[in-house]
Design goal:
The complex is a heterodimer of chains A (about 240) and B (about 325). Chain A contains 6 helices and 15 strands. With about 240 residues, chain A is of the alpha/beta class. Chain A has a single domain, classed as HUPs (Rossmann fold), CATH 3.40.50. Helices cover about 30% and strands about 30% of the residues of chain B. Classes of the chains: A alpha/beta (about 240), B alpha/beta (about 325). Chain B: GO terms for molecular function: electron transfer activity; flavin adenine dinucleotide binding.
Chain lengths: ~240, ~325
C-alpha cells in the first residue's frame, strides 16, 4: 500500500492576519505555521491505515524551504518519507498539477489531504488532482476504512452522512472525525530527523489564477449589551435593526 | 458567450444558496450583456425548475436522471461539463458547498478554467478579469485575477442579494452521456435527519456550547431555535463529547455558517469557533462570563445564565411571531 498525504503549511488559526507592500503580500512577521488542521486529520488517518496494512506513507508539500519544519513534523507524527516540491504555491491548479505529476510517477493507492486549506479555503486541490489523474474523488470524508482494495467512506452532506464504496486508487479530501489528531512523541521527533526529505523541482509552471491584492474587512462595532432581565429589548432590536423577526 | 449556473437541490427543493448563485449570475449576465442559464441534475418538479427564473435565469437545462439525485461527484461534473458546452458558456457559477466544491474542482480541469471560490462581489472586467473573494476563513479578502478564457466562480453564502422578481424560466430537457467511471464512487446509503433545517442553508442559527452543561439541556436550544425558525448548531467541544452530532459542529474545522442571525449560547468564542461564524450578519451572544471573548465579535450581548435567559427569550420571541 502506497499512501500519499498532501499537507499545507498555513498560519495557525490564532495568527493575526495582515498584509504588507501596499496590501499585495501576506505579512509573515511573527506568524506561527502549522500543518493545515484538515490535512492533520488526513495524516492521522493515513498513519493508522499504514500501520494496519503496511506499506509506505509519503507526505508532500508544494512550498519553499521554509515549509520543511512542517514536513518534519508530519514525519514525526508518523509519515515514512517527505517530498517537498520546491515552488511557491500561488494557485490551486498549479499546486494540483505538481501533486498529480509526482503521483503519476509513483502510482499511489490512495491520495489524502484536507478538505480545504485554512488560508485560501478553496477546497479544490483534491478534485483537481483526481481529475488530472482520472481517479474518483470524495470530499469531505469523515470516515475511511479499508477492506482489501475497497475503501468504505462516510462523506458529510448537509444534515447527515452519505456512505460510499470506492475501489483503490482514489483521492479524498478529509475532515474530522476521520481520526484524532496525533501529537508527535519524543521517539517520533527523533526519528523524523533521519527520515528522508526529498526536494523536487517543479514540473510545469501552469497557473489559472493569480492574486493581485489583499484587503482587511471593516472593523466590527462595539457589542450592545442588554440586561438579562430585559430580553424584550433584544427582541425589539432583532425586529427593528436585524429585521429577522 | 453565456453564463451557466450549477443548481443544487435537496430532494427536489432548489437550494437557497443556489438561488443566490443564480442571482449573482443574472447580475453578471446583465453587466456583460449576455444570457444566464441554469442546469439542474436529478428528479425535480417542473414548478421547482421554472422557479429559478425568479432569480433571473432565462433557461434551465434539466438532466432528468434519478442516478444524479445523490451527489455523485464525478457524474455531476461530467453532466455539468456537457451543459456548459451545450450553452456555449465561458463562465460557470455555483454556490459554495461541500458538493459544489468537489464538483467544480473537477470541472476546472475538464473545462480548462480558472476557478475562484468564496466570491463575494461581481468581477471587475475592465482590462483584467479580477474577482474579490474571502480568504483566511473570513479574516481577509483577496482580489484574484483569472488568466484563462473559461471561468468558474464559487459564490459565498449570503454574500449577494437574492433576486426574486424574474419571470419563470423555460425548461429544456438535456440528455447527457455519462462515462462508466462516473459512478466509480458507489453510494451505498444515506443517513439524514429530514425534519431539520440544514445548517449551511439556515437564515438563523442557534448554537450551544459547553455552557449548556450537557445534552439533556438541549431542549432549551431547540425551543429557541423553533421559536425563531432556526437551525441548531454547537461548538467543537460539544460535538467532540458526543452531546451533538458532528454535522452540527460550527467552526474552523466544522460547518461554516453565514446566516442573517447567529445566536451563541454558552460558547466562549474561541477563535476556531469564530472562524465558522464571522460571515454572519448579526451575532447575539448569551454567556454568564462577561469576559467571554465572543462578546467582542457580537452585535448584541446578554451577560447572564443561559438556563434563565433562554426560556424568557423563547417566550418573548413566541409572543411577537
Amino acid at each position: 500500500m502506497k499512501i500519499l498525504v498532501c499537507i499545507t503549511h498555513v498560519p495557525d488559526t490564532t495568527s493575526k492576519i495582515q498584509f504588507t507592500d501596499n496590501n499585495t503580500k501576506f505579512d509573515k512577521t511573527g506568524v506561527q505555521y502549522i500543518i493545515g488542521p484538515y490535512d492533520d486529520y488526513a495524516l492521522a488517518r493515513a498513519v493508522e491505515l499504514r500501520d494496519q496494512t503496511g506499506g509506505k506513507l509519503t507526505v508532500l508539500n508544494v512550498g519553499e524551504a521554509e515549509t520543511e519544519p512542517t514536513l518534519r513534523k508530519a514525519l514525526a507524527i508518523g509519515a515514512d518519507e517527505a517530498v517537498r516540491i520546491n515552488a511557491e504555491p500561488t494557485d490551486a491548479f498549479f499546486v494540483a498539477t505538481q501533486i498529480a505529476n509526482h503521483a503519476k510517477e509513483i502510482g499511489y493507492d490512495m491520495i489524502l489531504m484536507g478538505r480545504e486549506s485554512i488560508d485560501f479555503n478553496g477546497g479544490m486541490v483534491h478534485g483537481m488532482v483526481a481529475e488530472l489523474l482520472g481517479m474518483p474523488s470524495v470530499s469531505p470524508v469523515m470516515k475511511l476504512d479499508l477492506e482489501g482494495d475497497t475503501a468504505k467512506i462516510a462523506r458529510e452532506i448537509e444534515g447527515g452522512k452519505e456512505y460510499l464504496e470506492i475501489k483503490l486508487p482514489f483521492v479524498a479530501g478529509c475532515q474530522e472525525p476521520i481520526a484524532e489528531w496525533k501529537i508527535p512523541n519524543m521517539r517520533g521527533i527523533m526519528s523524523a530527523r533521519s527520515k528522508p526529505l526529498q526536494v523536487q523541482e517543479l514540473s510545469g509552471d501552469v497557473v489559472a489564477t493569480k492574486t493581485v491584492a489583499y484587503e482587511m474587512p471593516p472593523a466590527k462595532g462595539a457589542v450592545k449589551l442588554i440586561d438579562s432581565n430585559n430580553v424584550q429589548e433584544l427582541v425589539e432590536l432583532l425586529k427593528s435593526e436585524a429585521k429577522v423577526l | 458567450m453565456s453564463i451557466i449556473v450549477y443548481i443544487e437541490h435537496i430532494e427536489g427543493a432548489i437550494k437557497k444558496t443556489s438561488l443566490e448563485a443564480a442571482s449573482y449570475a443574472s447580475a453578471l449576465a446583465e453587466q456583460q450583456g449576455v444570457d444566464a442559464k441554469g442546469v439542474v441534475l436529478g428528479t425535480v418538479s417542473e414548478d421547482q425548475l421554472a422557479s429559478v427564473g425568479t432569480a433571473g435565469l432565462s433557461t434551465v437545462y434539466h438532466v432528468n436522471d434519478d442516478q444524479l439525485n445523490a451527489g455523485v461527484i464525478q457524474a455531476h461534473a461530467e453532466a455539468v461539463a456537457q451543459a456548459f458546452e451545450k450553452a456555449g458558456a465561458d463562465t460557470l457559477i455555483l454556490a459554495k458547498s461541500s458538493l459544489g466544491d468537489a464538483v467544480a474542482a473537477r470541472l476546472a480541469v475538464k473545462l480548462d478554467a480558472g476557478y475562484i471560490s468564496n466570491v463575494v462581489a461581481l468581477p471587475s472586467t475592465s482590462g483584467t478579469y479580477t474577482v474579490k473573494r474571502s480568504i483566511y476563513t473570513g479574516k481577509a479578502f483577496a482580489e484574484s485575477e483569472i488568466t484563462k478564457t473559461n471561468k468558474i466562480l464559487g459564490v459565498k453564502k449570503n454574500a449577494v442579494p437574492l433576486k426574486t422578481d424574474g419571470a419563470p424560466a423555460s425548461v429544456e430537457a438535456l440528455e447527457v452521456n455519462l462515462s462508466e467511471g462516473a459512478f466509480a464512487a458507489k453510494i451505498t446509503s444515506i443517513d439524514k435527519a429530514n425534519d431539520e433545517i440544514p445548517l449551511p442553508e439556515a437564515d438563523i442559527v442557534v448554537s450551544g456550547g459547553r455552557g449548556m452543561k450537557g445534552p439533556e439541556n438541549w431542549n432549551l436550544i431547540e425551543d429557541l431555535a423553533k421559536a425563531l425558525g432556526a437551525a441548531t448548531g454547537c461548538s467543537k467541544p460539544v460535538s467532540d463529547s458526543g452531546w451533538r452530532p458532528h454535522h452540527e459542529h460550527v467552526g474552523q474545522t466544522g460547518v461554516k455558517v453565514a446566516p442573517t442571525l447567529y445566536v451563541a449560547v454558552g460558547i466562549s468564542g474561541a477563535i476556531q469557533h469564530l472562524a465558522g461564524v464571522n460571515a454572519s450578519k448579526y451575532i447575539v451572544v448569551i454567556n454568564k462570563d462577561p469576559e467571554a471573548p465572543f462578546f467582542k465579535a457580537a452585535d448584541y450581548g446578554i451577560v447572564g445564565d443561559a438556563f434563565e435567559v433562554l426560556p424568557k427569550l423563547t417566550e418573548a420571541i413566541k409572543a411577537v411571531k
